[in-house]
Amino acid sequence: EAQVTQNPRYLITVTGKKLTVTCSQNMNHEYMSWYRQDPGLGLRQIYYSMNVEVTDKGDVPEGYKVSRKEKRNFPLILESPSPNQTSLYFCASSLIQRGTTDTQYFGPGTRLTVL
Amino acid sequence: KNQVEQSPQSLIILEGKNCTLQCNYTVSPFSNLRWYKQDTGRGPVSLTIMTFSENTKSNGRYTATLDADTKQSSLHITASQLSDSASYICVVSAFGDYKLSFGAGTTVTVRA
To answer: What was the pLDDT predicted at B4?
Structure first.
């Protein structure tokens, strides 16, 4: 089954404790992206990757890191989480993204709480 | 700056009734516009994708329209069902750009 998976689905952590949220897709998609979703603000893009070893900042990259060492995986790293990073996070992928009509597939979401 | 604005922010309708959601954008140069449905706590799912040359597209009871001249789109839900209760998000892509511009969404609640 074609899908985007994220782990963990739920995470409660404390300020400053480094964490990684994994994202994996099995559709051989080139484009992958991370979003956060907060009430009233909608989805905001954190980082995206056009292909292996190619990443770029989205609208809200501060406090986050990403890597794209393999095509299928795109982990999101919070080196020193803070309470304002408490949010619902989504990973997404599509075949190609640049101005195309490729459908973007979203993962199930990771609910992160930073105390 | 590319922007996408949706209205209304939320609405409540009775089961079986129709409703229309609006999306205005300033994204340029325009490439395509997508409507997504997002159930509470789940990832968005694509409903329709329209390019510059398309002004209407349907997916079951969902019909999207696009007026690229006025930079407006609408999503019409026909004969609403309880399962239509969700957030509907308008997403616009600029030609040659990898980034997407998201609207804040319209929350639709269908009541029996």
So the answer is: 94
A105's CB contacts (< 8 A; 6+ apart) are A2, A3, A4, A25, A27, A29, A92, A93, A94, B46
| Residue A23 in this model has a pLDDT that exceeds 80 | yes
A101 band by pLDDT with thresholds 50, 70 and 90 = low
Partner A contacted by B97 (CB < 8 A):
yes
When the pLDDT of each residue in chain B is averaged and rounded to a whole number, the result is 93
Q: Using the beta-carbon criterion (under 8 Å), do B43 and A106 form an inter-chain contact?
A: yes
**Cα-based distances in Å from B105 to A58, B66, B88:** 19, 17, 5
* Chain B residues near residue A31 by CB distance under 8 angstroms: 98
pLDDT at residue A104 in the model: 86
pLDDT at A115 over 60: yes
Neighbouring CB atoms inside 10 A of A40's CB total 7
Question: Is any Cβ of chain B less than 8 angstroms from the Cβ of A106?
Answer: yes
Mean local confidence (pLDDT), B75-99:
92
The pair of three-digit structure tokens given for residue B95, joined into one six-digit string = 């030609």
Q: Are A46 and A111 in contact (CB under 8 A)?
A: no
Residue of B nearest to A6 (CA): B43
Contacts of B99 in chain A (CB under 8 A): 45, 48, 58-59
Q: How many CB pairs under 8 A join A and B?
A: 63
Count H helices, E strands: chain A? 0, 11
